[in-house]
Specification:
Blueprint: E1 6-10, H1 14-24, E2 30-34, H2 37-46, E3 51-55, H3 63-73, E4 78-83, H4 88-97, E5 101-104, H5 109-124, H6 130-135, H7 143-146
Parallel strand pairs: 1-2, 1-3, 3-4, 4-5
Helix pairs in contact: 2-3, 3-4
Amino acid sequence: MVAIRKVLVVDDEEIVRLSLMRTLAGQNCTVEGALGGEQALENLQAAPADVVILDLRMPGMDGMTTLKMVKERWPETQVVILTGYPSVYTAREAVKLGAFDYLTKPVEPDKIVAVANAAMAERLAPQKTEQGAKAQDPNKGWAKYLG
């Protein structure tokens, strides 16, 4: 039996959340939404996601705190940061905490689909050995943000 793959979209802005959910809905996966960090963690506790698309600036628990908690509890879940307020500091912090990618709003539908597919592929890739993971470039894909 093949498990249905799940993407969780976390954004306090309803129009953004619903737009992203609609864009990702046709990608052979289940797509759910959460209004913020607390609701995202509750959703993940009930049914972990393969990929989380996560806004940074939200009331209550912010995206960076949510990212940290997701990676601590579900390290195999791939998290894509999506922000309308990009900065080198938040990009670096997101990398340190284990984000798969860092995108800026507004994001084109084709771009979010491509990144979500890449994150899903990473999630489904055979488990890397501890030594193999250490040998990988820690800034893979992040040079455009970190210089």
